[in-house]
Design brief:
The structure is a single chain. By secondary structure, the protein is an alpha+beta fold. The chain has one helix and six strands. It has one domain. The strands form three sheets. A two-stranded antiparallel sheet has the order 1-6. It has a two-stranded antiparallel ribbon with strand order 2-5.
């Protein structure tokens, strides 16, 4: 028998956004309410650049613009009544066992 654990979160459950450096693997969490005041541009540990305002060749938004749009939308959803009805599923670890 296989049991499955599901992890569901509401937008209001999101307190901070975490970043993991692809270079040194350090993690850094920024509270949602301060994320736009202190945009994450580089790793606070090794100083490698994570995100820039540089245009993307495909014409899409820059990394920092995308992050700004994400944070803005998240904050707006957190204040709306329908935000309480939205759930995000995050990956959990499947457990196998016999009964």
């Amino acid at each position: 028998m296989t049991s499955e654990k599901r992890i569901l979160i509401s937008p209001k459950d999101i307190l901070s956004v975490g970043f993991e450096c692809p270079y040194c693997r350090a993690t850094y969490f920024v509270p949602v309410e301060t994320l736009d005041r202190h945009p994450v541009r580089q790793c606070p540990n090794c100083q490698e650049t994570w995100a820039t305002d540089a245009p993307v060749p495909s014409g899409e938004y820059s990394d920092l613009k995308m992050l700004s749009l994400f944070v803005d939308c998240l904050r707006k959803i957190q204040t709306r009544a329908f935000g309480a009805a939205i759930r995000f599923e995050v990956s959990g670890e499947p457990k196998t066992g016999t009964q």
